C-alpha cells in the first residue's frame, strides 16, 4: 500500500482545528502521514488522553467483518493523533493484509514473543503512518495454542509481554481469530475493553451467548473484569426484514452493551479491505468510513470518562 496523502482540509480535520485558525501553517497542497505528525507536534495538537487502553475485537462466530472494522478503527485513531499498536492474533494474517502487508514477509510474529521469549519490541513493525505500528501474523501462529498449553502462567503471557512497550502507546488493538483457545484467552486477560462485532442475524446470538459466558468465567475464576464491552452491529442492511428483527432482538437482550452506532453495509468498505487498504485511505467519504468515525466519536467520551485521574499524556506525543 502506498503511503496516503491528505489535503489541507483533511489535515485540519485530523488535527481537530478550524482550517482558518491554522491557515498560516498549511503551506502545502497535500501532506503525507509523517508531515501531518510533524505539523501536529509543531502546533501541539494532540488528543486528550484515554488512559492507555488495550482493546480486543473478538467474536467466536466468523464472518462478522471483525478485521476490517478493527484495522480501520485503529487507523482512524492514529489519524486523529493517538499512538496505536495493532496486534494481529490470527494465523491467517488478515489484519496484517488490511494494513497493506503480507504476513509471510516477516520472520517474527507473536509466536516468537510468547513461546520463544523474544522481546515484543523485536517483532513490532511500522506502517505508513508514523504513529501506527503493528505486530504481524502468518501461518506460524497456528501453533501458538498448542505451544502455550504446558507453560506455567500461560493465560498471562501476552499481558506480561506487553509491559515492555505498552507505555509507548495510547491504544493497543488486538485482532483475534473467531475461536476460543489459549491465545484468545491471553488477549481477554490483557484487554481493558472488548468490542464484539456482530451481524444482524440470529446466528450471532449463539456466539454472543458463549462469549458472555466466557467473560463471566474470567471474572469469577481469574478475577479479571473488563472496563467496557461494546457490541457493534456491522454490515447492516436496513432493507432486509430479518436484519431489522435481529437488531430489535439485540436491543432487547443486550441494551447495556449495544452501541447506538451501526456500521452500514458498504461495498467500498469490503473492497478496501480485500485490497489491503483501510477504508479511510480507500474512500474516506464512504458509508463505512462515516460510520466508523461516528462509532469512534461515540466511544471516545466513554473511554475518557473511565480513564484514571492524572494519567500521563506523553504517549500521545511519541512516534517513530
From TrEMBL:
<dbReference type="InterPro" id="IPR025669">
    <property type="entry name" value="AAA_dom"/>
</dbReference>
<feature type="domain" description="AAA">
    <location>
        <begin position="57"/>
        <end position="226"/>
    </location>
</feature>
<dbReference type="InterPro" id="IPR027417">
    <property type="entry name" value="P-loop_NTPase"/>
</dbReference>
<dbReference type="InterPro" id="IPR050678">
    <property type="entry name" value="DNA_Partitioning_ATPase"/>
</dbReference>
<protein>
    <submittedName>
        <fullName>Chromosome partitioning protein</fullName>
    </submittedName>
</protein>
<dbReference type="Pfam" id="PF13614">
    <property type="entry name" value="AAA_31"/>
</dbReference>
